[in-house]
Amino acid sequence: MESVERSHSGSAVIFHTFDSLEQEVLTSLYSMFPRVYTVGPLQLLLNQIQEDDLDSIDCNLWKEEVECLQWLDSKKPNSVIYVNFGSIAVATKAQLVEFGMGLSKSVESISSGVPMFSWPSIGDRQTNCRYTCNEWAIGMEIDSNVTRENVEKQVRELMEGEEGKKMKKKAMEWKRLALEATRPGGSSSMNLDKLVTEVLFS
């Protein structure tokens, strides 16, 4: 709440999203704040920079573990499910066991064309789940009463079922829009340029 209250005194409000993903919300924000900049997905903006210019830029706070990438490269396309409990995860041991037996960063997943599972528990996860499952149509909500049977059923539906195919198609559409936003002339690319000239150098 404090961040929202203090945002009115800032010289700009910056969001890690892209215009077409959250247009309705952004339209409201544009009417409340004089300078709103959408500059996401950042990893796609970084892809626009020449490789040798990236030596000093990293969008990850942790050292990359390449063993994981090597393992992923050894798997068939679309055969691995990524599980992310977020920065703060509150789950009982039994719930974690059920997940493990049956079996997200939102913007990163969207820009990669990846459908998601949502298991909302605290904070903004309820809102993220609503957008992922209802607004963007790229996710399935896992019931709070986690059972391995239900998780397995949903994983199979997402990976092999008709509903999963629809979500994958929609996720690929969002990926296309994210790529458009971050290409030269795209909304996020232009917003990053405007942020630099209008806020940082003004």
UniProtKB/TrEMBL annotation:
<dbReference type="InterPro" id="IPR002213">
    <property type="entry name" value="UDP_glucos_trans"/>
</dbReference>
<dbReference type="GO" id="GO:0080043">
    <property type="term" value="F:quercetin 3-O-glucosyltransferase activity"/>
</dbReference>
<dbReference type="GO" id="GO:0080044">
    <property type="term" value="F:quercetin 7-O-glucosyltransferase activity"/>
</dbReference>
<protein>
    <submittedName>
        <fullName>7-deoxyloganetin glucosyltransferase-like</fullName>
    </submittedName>
</protein>
<dbReference type="Pfam" id="PF00201">
    <property type="entry name" value="UDPGT"/>
</dbReference>
<comment type="similarity">
    <text>Belongs to the UDP-glycosyltransferase family.</text>
</comment>
<keyword id="KW-0808">Transferase</keyword>
